């Protein structure tokens, strides 16, 4: 602890040392490094991400990667998360290419430590409640730049800023009209002969050879007016975006669900055992645990189930969700006096998107009951189900996997709607030379409404399965006894047996809704003490200091209708508040001295008192910057950061949910031994008779925990910035980062629990299995892996960021080059203290999840003509190769060996963009992303983890193929 406080203590001592010295005040020109500072001539405030201190010429000591508005337009981006996901520091999170399980939001995951461990800001203030963060909320056409700050920033911004901060700087002082419109679409050439041959051999339909889909239209306008000689400005904006879907049927990589075959050496078209013909597994009687299937010919005959009956659920699933967004907002400010400028903002979004997946089913895992005298049963089926009780009023419980595709069934659609509001307001001003204040408030609200459509109600389905003969007419028992006069019998005992009427009866939509609220009240006092002589005798600029107080309250209410609760959705509610006091100090020790062009110390401290804890929490930082000459600047920093548990982690009710995994103790020939499976709760009688998790999807129990403690993180950064005077317009930055999170809030991944119990027999992991006592399965209502939220072990990541920029003018025009790359040294996870850890660098797979290559970069080369009217820009995105976790010898990661997908190759994508300026402030742009139309890697569905979709990882790899866009920006 002592060494961690060294820089902070040193800063305080330096401040005391220089307090008595005096020198004339000197104005330092504003500067920008790494996008670290910007001073809009139309705006009075100085905004530097990573600090609240305001001084002329201030440069942040934190490593910052900046993305400006020109880059956003060159990418043809209408979704801001797609721009950031290209940065090597960011791992794709929730995005438009995730369908099954999507909540409709778009999130940012900095350093692959989780989207809940980086803080999203708008102009230095929190955007939305952390658990409801959605960057769809941002009007991308008004983003001037995005600052991505590496390292903890809790001392400056409070909780959640563990891996860093993403700060969106918006344009707010428009004097005129700004309009932006863009249209785009995808056109992929499907020519993967290996995938197409496989689909043909499986009897499925291949993707179209060259589909045009995924159309997107984005139109925005902003109107602003300055008044009172520039002391005031008011501005409003409006936006509309519409995106058309892409289905997995239209891409070779996703036309069928890929499973491994031939000892994991090749692909086969697999799918779900919940098939269109109908699977039946009695839970009692003479054939308990035996899986049967209806025959394909429509006869009422059961045969032993095998994998050839699997249903190809892939074609109807969305690879890109449809989306319709309306946005609006306004910004206003008025300076009544230099000591009193009133400002306010309002932002609004109404976003509606649909995820779509395969038709619903009577899913295995739900216990269904069929009476043994059901007239819809054939004699053969009745005897296999009930034995000697066939024809009597006895009943038999069973699992059913019947997908009524021939009825015809409709795909399940999840209608997800987010209506977000954000209001800010305050007063700021300079009350004395160099001394200013800012008192402000922020209120945000996120309304979530979900309507899950075309899903089968298991209660109604159970009624429809209990049928008796009434005057020669099959009739539901519930009709006879009057409990449900609308019941329609379900003939699930033959292919195509369900009628449209019976389908209408069992289809029941569910509705859920939630509301997240956040209120922040804040006040700061900032002082630049240069004019008061509080400065070092060896520096021109004085000490800068900030004092502040902040109060934040967050609340969550989530409701579900009766049917949603019946299906396992649980309601939740909760709230907390926190009061914080913070300070920051910056001491320029040397300026313009030999071998000390600059030597600056910065320190910060924040004390936080949460209503959910009896004791307070301290966070702090210390930074140093040294420039021996103007051409080179060294910087280093230490931050102690925290992340308090959010409302969902604290108060979410416990429930069951699907996870990507497979049970090694399932099937007729399990991959795990009887002894290994016994440790997971498998009985001798169950071994070799447990049915597999359908579609490689098992069930886990998750939920909140009110006893959670805050996470703590220590972050270190060391770097150098070169801007040689002999090479004008060139800069190079190299920064090392090291972040370790302790007591991180998470659940133990079910895949890790499964592998650890099987491989090591560790009683802790084996105790997390809760097998269905009737048949040992790990899915359904009674079979699951416990994966609730808790303070677990530690996360650690380290590496090096490299950034370079160079521009030169020639006789044929100007050339510019920008480059940002990240070498990942370590990405280590310790699931529980003392039980060992695993490193995911260079790996992908069931435990590590999305690929974490050792090296990623993005480089852009641009040319503009001598008149700066036309430009051409080529972008190169590189994603390093990765290897499969299963094939490692790490006991945390090892699993069934794969020849198939043993490694994913390195990927290079190239994007081309052109711009042309015309009269009147109008600029046209056009471009092609994924110029070479490169296919994403095909990955077996059982090897995918979070955010995997369509046999690959959307977000990491381009799944739409070659995409085109054309747009126009006009300002007048």
Short description:
This protein is mainly beta and about 950 residues long.
Question: Would you write up a description of this structure?
Answer:
With 972 residues, the chain is mainly β. 10% of the residues lie in helices and 45% in strands. The chain has 14 helices and 51 strands. It is elongated. The model is unreliable at 1-44 (pLDDT under 50).
Distance between the ends: 57 Å
Radius of gyration: 30 Å
Question: Major beta sheet, specifics?
Answer: 22 strands, antiparallel, barrel
User: What overall form do the CA principal axes indicate?
Assistant: elongated
Strand content: 35-45%
Broad structural category: mainly beta
Q: Segments where pLDDT lies below 50 for 5+ residues?
A: 1-44
Let me know the number of strands: 51
Helix content: under 10%
Let me know the average pLDDT. 91
SS element count, helices = 14
Which short descriptors sum up this protein?
972 residues; mainly beta; 22-stranded antiparallel barrel; five-stranded mixed sheet; 51 strands; 10% helix; disordered N terminus
List the helices and strands and how they pair.
Blueprint: H1 6-18, E1 64-68, H2 69-74, H3 80-85, E2 90-92, E3 108-110, E4 118-122, E5 125-126, E6 143-150, H4 154-157, E7 164-170, E8 176-187, H5 193-201, E9 212-227, E10 232-243, E11 246-247, E12 258-261, E13 266-269, E14 279-282, E15 292-294, E16 302-304, E17 318-320, E18 322-337, E19 340-359, E20 368-371, H6 379-386, E21 395-401, E22 411-432, E23 435-453, H7 458-465, E24 467-470, E25 473-476, H8 477-480, H9 500-506, E26 510-528, E27 544-560, H10 562-566, E28 572-593, E29 596-610, E30 617-629, E31 632-643, H11 647-651, E32 655-660, H12 674-679, E33 697-702, E34 711-722, E35 730-742, E36 745-746, H13 750-760, H14 763-766, E37 769-770, E38 784-786, E39 790-791, E40 794-810, E41 813-830, E42 838-839, E43 843-845, E44 849-852, E45 855-864, E46 870-879, E47 882-884, E48 903-904, E49 907-918, E50 922-929, E51 963-971
Parallel strand pairs: 4-7, 33-38, 43-47
Antiparallel strand pairs: 1-6, 2-3, 4-5, 6-7, 8-9, 8-51, 9-10, 10-18, 11-17, 12-13, 14-15, 14-21, 15-16, 18-19, 19-22, 20-21, 22-23, 23-26, 24-25, 26-27, 27-28, 28-29, 29-30, 30-31, 31-34, 32-33, 34-35, 35-40, 36-39, 37-38, 40-41, 41-42, 41-45, 43-44, 45-46, 46-49, 47-48, 49-50, 50-51
């Amino acid at each position: 602890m002592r060494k961690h406080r060294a820089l902070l203590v040193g800063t305080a001592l330096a401040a005391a040392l220089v307090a008595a010295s005096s020198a004339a005040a000197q104005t330092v020109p504003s500067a920008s490094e790494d996008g670290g500072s910007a001073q809009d001539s139309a705006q009075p405030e100085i905004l530097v991400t990573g600090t609240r201190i305001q001084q002329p010429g201030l440069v942040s000591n934190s490593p910052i990667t900046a993305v400006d508005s020109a880059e956003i337009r060159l990418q043809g981006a209408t979704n801001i998360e797609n721009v950031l996901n290209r940065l090597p520091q960011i791992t794709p999170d929730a995005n438009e290419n995730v369908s099954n399980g999507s909540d409709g939001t778009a999130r940012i995951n900095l350093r692959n430590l989780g989207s809940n461990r980086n803080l999203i800001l708008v102009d230095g203030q929190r955007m939305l409640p952390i658990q409801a963060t959605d960057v769809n909320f941002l009007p991308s056409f008004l983003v001037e730049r995005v600052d991505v700050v590496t390292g903890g920033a809790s001392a400056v911004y409070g909780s959640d800023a563990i891996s860093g901060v993403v700060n969106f700087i918006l344009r707010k002082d428009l004097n005129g009209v700004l309009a932006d419109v863009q249209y785009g679409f995808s056109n992929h050439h499907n020519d993967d002969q290996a995938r197409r041959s496989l689909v043909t051999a499986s009897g499925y339909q291949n993707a179209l050879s060259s589909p045009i889909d995924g159309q997107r239209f984005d139109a925005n306008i902003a109107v602003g007016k300055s008044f009172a000689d520039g002391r005031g400005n008011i501005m409003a904006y409006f936006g509309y975006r519409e995106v058309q879907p892409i289905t997995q049927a239209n891409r070779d990589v996703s036309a069928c669900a890929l499973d491994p075959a031939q000892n994991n050496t090749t692909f086969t078209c697999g799918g779900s055992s919940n098939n269109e013909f109908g699977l039946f597994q009695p839970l009692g009687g003479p054939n308990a645990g035996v899986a049967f299937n209806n025959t394909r010919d429509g006869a009422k005959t059961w045969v032993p189930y095998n994998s050839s009956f699997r249903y190809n659920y892939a074609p109807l699933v969305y690879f890109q969700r449809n989306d319709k967004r309306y946005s609006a907002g306004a910004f206003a400010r008025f300076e009544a006096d230099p000591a009193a400028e009133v400002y306010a903002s309002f932002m609004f979004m109404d976003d509606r998107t649909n995820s779509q997946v395969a038709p619903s089913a009577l899913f295995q895992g739900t216990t269904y009951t069929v009476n043994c005298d059901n007239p819809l049963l054939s004699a053969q089926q009745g005897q296999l189900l009930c034995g000697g009780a066939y024809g009597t009023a006895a009943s038999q419980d069973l699992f059913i996997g019947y997908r009524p595709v021939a009825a015809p069934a409709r795909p399940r659609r999840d209608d997800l709607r987010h209506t977000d509001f954000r209001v800010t307001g305050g007063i700021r001003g300079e009350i004395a030379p160099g001394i200013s204040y800012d008192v402000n408030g922020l209120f945000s609200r996120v309304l979530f409404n979900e309507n899950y459509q075309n899903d089968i109600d298991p209660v109604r389905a159970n009624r429809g399965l209990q049928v008796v003969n009434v005057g020669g007419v099959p009739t539901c028992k519930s009709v006879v006894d009057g409990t449900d006069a609308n019941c329609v019998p379900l003939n699930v005992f033959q292919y195509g047996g369900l009628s449209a009427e019976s389908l209408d009866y069992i289809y029941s939509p569910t509705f859920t809704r939630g509301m997240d609220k956040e209120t922040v009240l804040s006040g700061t006092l900032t002082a630049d003490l240069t004019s008061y002589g509080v400065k070092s005798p060896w520096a021109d600029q004085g000490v800068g200091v900030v004092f502040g107080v902040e109060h934040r309250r967050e609340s969550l209410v989530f409701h579900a209708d009766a049917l949603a609760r019946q299906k396992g959705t649980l309601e939740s509610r909760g709230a907390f508040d926190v009061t914080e006091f913070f300070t920051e100090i910056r001491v320029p020790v040397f300026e313009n001295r030999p071998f000390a062009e600059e030597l600056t110390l910065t320190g910060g401290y924040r004390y936080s008192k949460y209503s959910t804890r009896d004791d307070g929490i301290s966070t702090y930082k210390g930074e140093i910057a040294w420039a021996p000459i103007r051409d080179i600047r060294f910087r280093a920093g230490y931050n102690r950061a925290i992340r308090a548990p959010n409302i969902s982690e604290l108060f979410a009710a416990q429930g069951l949910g699907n996870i990507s995994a497979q049970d090694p103790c399932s099937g007729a020939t399990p991959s795990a031994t009887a002894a290994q499976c016994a440790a997971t709760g498998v009985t001798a009688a169950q071994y070799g008779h447990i049915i597999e998790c359908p579609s490689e999807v098992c069930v886990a129990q998750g939920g909140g925990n009110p006893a959670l403690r805050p996470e703590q993180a220590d972050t270190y950064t060391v770097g150098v910035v070169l801007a040689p005077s002999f090479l004008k317009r060139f800069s190079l930055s190299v920064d090392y980062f090291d972040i370790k999170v302790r007591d991180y809030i998470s659940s133990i991944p079910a895949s890790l629990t499964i592998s650890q119990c099987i491989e090591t027999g560790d009683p802790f992991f084996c105790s997390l299995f809760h097998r269905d006592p009737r048949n040992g399965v790990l899915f359904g209502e009674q079979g699951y892996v416990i994966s609730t939220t808790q303070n677990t072990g530690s996360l650690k990541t380290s590496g090096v960021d490299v950034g370079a920029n160079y521009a030169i003018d020639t006789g044929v025009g100007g050339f510019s080059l920008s480059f940002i790359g990240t070498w990942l040294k370590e990405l280590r996870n310790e699931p529980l203290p003392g039980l060992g850890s695993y490193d995911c660098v260079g790996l992908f797979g069931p435990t590590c999840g999305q690929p974490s290559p050792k090296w990623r970069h993005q480089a852009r080369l641009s040319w503009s003509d001598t008149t700066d009217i036309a430009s051409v820009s080529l972008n190169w995105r590189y994603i390093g190769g990765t290897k499969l976790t299963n094939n490692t010898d790490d006991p945390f990661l090892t699993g069934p060996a794969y020849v198939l997908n043993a490694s994913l190759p390195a990927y290079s994508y190239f994007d081309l963009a052109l711009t042309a300026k015309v009269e009147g402030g109008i600029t046209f742009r056009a471009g092609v992303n994924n110029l070479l139309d490169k296919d994403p890697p095909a990955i077996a569905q059982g090897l995918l983890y979070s955010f995997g979709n369509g046999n690959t990882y959307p977000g990491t790899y381009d799944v739409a193929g070659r995409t085109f866009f054309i747009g126009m920006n006009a300002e007048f």
